[in-house]
């Protein structure tokens, strides 16, 4: 269970999150929608202590992480996997070593064979063909890098998956593939997933619950069916975009 | 993260295990071996200029350049060797480090490290800090010796001092202690470069402009720090002469 309680976050004078409150029950897929600069990524980074809220509380499986020191964050981060807006792969390592990176850290008892088997399993989970593991990140396409990033995240078997605009900069075909991968992984691995996105169509397709953020505040939320009935102008804009995309 | 906190975390991590020896050796090779040609090349020219300028001015003022070997050796060992090497290292290694760490920050690789339970300071700064400190120490010794050799060669060709006369003249002014102090300076300057460069990398703002300004600021800050530290160390060492 992830819970936000009146969370505020400021950078200097600028308040990015203005009293956010919501809960995500275990096993659900929550989409956080909003235009650029509304604090979606900031919200996600607060869950795993990459940023800390100015005030308010954040609970992850009963632990208050809002002001938790860096040294104590490890067990929380161990539970969570985050797919960043950028693929964030380590340039100097091969695809294999990128996926194995967390495994070597978290499972020191694993043999080389066990690590290799897990890496292959995770790469096949994200539909990457054998042969890619020997390449460096800069030798594969951006879409493939995103998939490798996803494989690296799921390799350590997190209970909570956080996706920060996982389809930004991808073509529609790869976007669709990644979105279905999120659904597939969330269902197969029974994880709680939070997805930050601009993509209303995808949210309507795969989310259990949707939150719409605007200027640091939740302006609407509900199930996909409830959101379709929303009267809020921003939600209507998102829905129109989604319908247009579906129509075209 | 403030600079004092960053320095404290870096130094604390440097003096506690575990160490990533493979990475330290890769960095050491990059810092010392790969920097050696450019440092030797530039320092040899600096030595030639030192000899020619000091000879010219001594002849002008005291009508005699007999003190040139000793004076030049003193200048090389106490200042030129360590400081010029460090400034060259700053432009070659420091700029690269700031850009590398800055790019990692911008592309969220540092956040990815933290998510995987890796301390970015231990992972990125410690190997570079150890490599640059050891590299700075080794480079300052090699650079000083090469610089002295270049000064000796040019003294023989241009001023007619035999190597024996050059060494005798040099020994009247400098001691082994000078080489020790020069290598302490080299190690200290070497440590400053990755600390400042990585600090600016960690503070890098998003975008190409952010990486560019982090790189520029790190080179300026490292160079200024080296000059100021040179003064501080020279003042401290002056008590031992």
Describe this structure in words.
The complex is a heterodimer of chains A (248) and B (241). Chain A is of the alpha/beta class. Chain A has one domain (2-247): Rossmann fold (3-Layer(aba) Sandwich). Chain A has helices spanning 40-47, 74-79, 95-106, 112-125, 142-155, 172-189, 200-206, 224-228, 233-247; strands at 2-11, 14-24, 29-34, 55-60, 63-64, 80-83, 160-164, 192-197, 209-214, 217-222. Chain A has a six-stranded mixed sheet with strand order 6-7-8-3-9-10, sandwiched between helices. In chain A, helix 3 (95-106) runs parallel beside helix 5 (142-155) and helix 4 packs across helix 5. The radius of gyration of chain A is 18 Å and the shape is globular. Chain B has 241 residues and is mainly α. Chain B has one domain (3-238). Chain B contains nine helices and no strands. In chain B, helix 3 (36-62) packs across helix 6, helix 4 (68-106) runs parallel beside helix 8 (176-202) and helix 6 (120-159) packs across helix 8. Chain B is elongated. The A-B interface holds A 45, 48, 50, 70, 74, 77-78, 80-82, 84-91, 101-102, 105-106, 156 and B 107-109, 111-112, 114-118.
